[in-house]
Design brief:
Length: 461
């Protein structure tokens, strides 16, 4: 993969960056695979970045754009069995070669066509986290546009992302190394991770997921090929600072633009390079959007999409799915005449395990009242719902309300992230399904742990 580096430019950018559909950007290359099951449909495949550093690396093969920060790959998909699954991967970097960047930069804008550093488009949402230099009317318009087109439609995903950032175990470079979502020519549509990632994290992270060709090792290779140790140290320090900052800021779950508002004053101190505010007022039509500051020198060039990375529509991708048929056993005439064979039954332990994992059909009950001001009572209400076999979807709604109510009182309890996790998983389950006996036991154990923590810190509620 070695390519002669011609030039390189690292810039602090502090931007909010979202690709609403990863598959749409790449022309739906694959449905992917999940836990050895075929995927029949992808409903959502969002990429989010709170970025602190970007870099354009100019090589003989072409330009490679790197974005570094706190990232999230979120995907919601359907297995051929009809079951809906949500999955995610934490990211620390995004790699876009020039042909992907140019496709992104020339996609259609939805609004704000004359604002060079704020993009609301079909394939991209991007804005500097600090927009204090804009007029008050412009800021109000940007807030409304982002809320309407991004934060409201994808509210649950952003809340999940912010809870993941708050998790003390997340984005720890010393434990996980870098996690890079790549469209590099040699690592197309893959996530590259570090071979030094701790084994416990590695085994879970490497599991295949929807929308990607693979998750594999290679992060060190591509980083060492393009950056010096000093540059990597600068990049890592930027990510660590973002982790600390976004773990500690307050934000309003009902007004998610507050994530931008409340972090801007702190990031403003780093004096990131941005576009000239005078240029922002220009009515000049540019050939491409100014996504990355490091790409300013390439505004008048365009790289075609390579033929080896074939593009197609989502409909074409899903139509190509080969449905697995259940093969029915048809005995021959000779076998019908034979005496019945004595079959060996499974061990009782195996039968019991299967029964404990099977989710039963249950009657849907109305959502009960969830207390507002007492975290202990909120958790006990959840426990009672689990014991009374509420359906999973209703449990998911209850967990979401519980998380929001507890968050009004405290923001630092570790189990808030668990509440978010259960809420997002359960609310996407098919209706009329209850928890399996094994899931029920595990969930009750988790709630008991949260109750214990709450009682120990009762003076906080």
């Amino acid at each position: 993969m070695s390519m002669h580096l011609l030039e390189k430019k690292i810039i602090k950018n502090n931007i909010f960056f979202v690709i609403p559909s990863w598959g749409d950007l790449l022309g739906y290359p694959t449905l992917g695979n999940y836990a050895n099951h075929n995927i029949s449909k992808i409903s959502q495949d969002l990429v989010i970045f709170l970025s602190g550093t970007e870099c354009a690396v100019f090589t003989e093969r072409g330009t490679i754009y790197f974005l570094f920060g706190l990232g999230y790959y979120y995907v919601n998909f359907e297995l051929q069995s009809g079951r809906y699954i949500t999955d995610n991967r934490q990211l620390t970097g995004l790699i876009l070669p020039d042909f992907v960047y140019d496709h992104l930069a020339t996609s259609r804008n939805i609004t704000l066509e004359n604002d060079r550093d704020v993009i609301v488009g079909e394939k991209l949402f991007k804005l500097p986290i600090d927009i204090s230099y804009k007029t008050e009317n412009k800021i109000t318009f940007i807030q409304g546009t982002l809320m309407r087109n991004l934060f409201i439609p994808y509210k649950d995903i952003f809340l999940e992302f912010m809870e993941a950032i708050r998790n003390p175990q997340s984005f720890q470079l010393n434990r996980s190394g870098h996690m890079l979502l790549s469209t590099h020519w040699d690592f197309y549509n893959k996530i590259l991770i570090s071979a030094d990632m701790e084994n416990e994290l590695k085994s879970a992270y490497l599991n295949s997921t929807a929308g990607l060709f693979a998750i594999s090792f290679g992060a060190e290779q591509i980083l060492n090929d393009n950056f010096t140790l000093t540059e990597l140290k600068e990049i890592n320090e930027s990510i660590i600072k973002l982790k600390i900052l976004f773990s500690s800021i307050d934000y309003d779950p009902m007004f998610l633009f507050s994530i931008i508002e409340n972090s801007a004053p702190l990031l403003r101190k780093s004096k990131p390079f941005t576009f000239n505010p005078v240029d922002d007022q220009m009515d000049k039509k540019m050939p491409k959007e100014s996504i990355f500051i490091s790409a300013e020198g390439k505004m008048n060039t365009f790289q075609e999409w390579p033929i080896e990375f074939k593009r197609q529509t989502k409909e074409q991708l899903e139509l190509n799915v080969i449905q697995e048929k259940v093969k029915l056993y048809q005995p021959s005439k000779e076998e019908l005449l034979e005496k019945p064979k004595v079959l060996k039954f499974r061990k009782r332990e195996e039968e019991f395990e299967l029964r404990t994992m099977k989710r039963p059909y249950v009657e849907i009950k109305p959502l009960p009242y969830i207390p507002h001001d007492n975290a202990l009572q909120i958790l006990l209400t959840l426990k009672k719902m689990v014991e009374e076999n509420y359906d999973i979807v209703t449990l998911g709604k209850a967990f979401e309300i519980a998380r929001n109510n507890i968050k009004k009182k405290v923001l630092h309890e570790n189990y808030l992230w668990d509440l978010s996790k259960y809420a997002n998983i359960y609310e996407r389950t098919e209706p009329n399904i209850g928890l399996s006996p094994k899931e029920k036991i595990q969930l009750l154990e988790d709630i008991d742990k949260w109750v214990k923590v709450t009682v120990e810190h009762s003076d906080k509620f």
